[in-house]
Design a protein that fits this description.
Shape: globular
Low-confidence stretches: 1-51
Radius of gyration: 17 Å
Distance between the termini: 52 Å
CATH topology: Pseudouridine synthase
CATH class: Alpha Beta
Helix content: 10-25%
CATH superfamily: Pseudouridine synthase
Structural class: alpha+beta
Order of helices and strands: HEEEEEEHHEEH
CATH architecture: 2-Layer Sandwich
Largest sheet: 6 strands, antiparallel
Number of domains: 1
Strand content: 25-35%
Mean pLDDT: 76
Length: about 210
């Protein structure tokens, strides 16, 4: 697997020894599972497959916008919609499950820019749930009730990171040309938080 990734990095024009986030390799057929928290309703993506939690207006769609280094924080990436900087980036999405203030979303990447999913969803004001760097670690939508705030804060404690998961990876082997496919289940902490949101919605609807 290490040799395959090194070969792929050379083809992608990256120097030997580059660290590659398989969830962001261009045209790798990667699937992600992510959990997003949103402040307004939004849409989905359609490229390397992903799932995330957020609130979208459209059930599926595409986010386009050049991605480059943030002008104020070099550790972050940002979207340049006018194309003045950065490199072209395209993210397709599809809502899998609606849970009131959050949605479980599947994403597919047509390009593989650094922090592509995180930067694109921040740009459309739907940061990934728990993403401290891109604003997903704050309560951006919902009620003002104390119980709700406590519920969300508890979810943040259970999942103290961005709720983004590389679900599956598929690519053509560079030597044998055989189609390769790898799949991984959602981690336990993401499953627990998703189930808590489901239960929260059921409990609210029965009131």
């Amino acid at each position: 697997m290490e040799r395959i990734l090194k070969t792929m990095s050379r083809k992608a024009g990256m120097p030997p020894g580059s660290l590659v986030h398989i969830g962001e390799i261009p045209a790798a057929g990667v699937r992600f599972k992510a959990f997003r928290y949103s402040e307004t309703e939004f849409e989905e993506l359609a490229v390397p497959d992903t799932e995330s939690l957020l609130r979208l207006k459209e059930k599926e769609g595409t986010i386009e916008g050049n991605i480059g280094r943030n002008l104020k924080d070099r550790k972050k990436m940002q979207v340049f919609p006018d194309g003045s900087q950065g490199k072209p980036a395209i993210t397709h999405y599809r809502v899998l499950e609606e849970m009131s203030y959050v949605n479980l979303v599947e994403c597919i990447l047509e390009t593989g820019r650094t922090h592509q999913i995180r930067a694109h969803f921040e740009y459309v004001k739907h940061p990934i749930f728990g993403d401290e760097v891109y604003g997903g670690n704050k309560i951006v939508r919902g009620t003002t009730f104390t119980k709700y705030k406590q519920f969300v804060q508890n979810c943040f404690k259970i999942l103290p990171r961005q709720a983004l998961h590389a679900k599956s990876l598929g690519f053509t082997h560079p030597r044998t040309h055989k189609e390769m496919y790898f799949d991984s289940e959602l981690p336990e902490d993401m499953c627990v938080v998703i189930e808590k949101w489901r239960n929260y919605i059921v409990g609210r609807e029965t009131l």
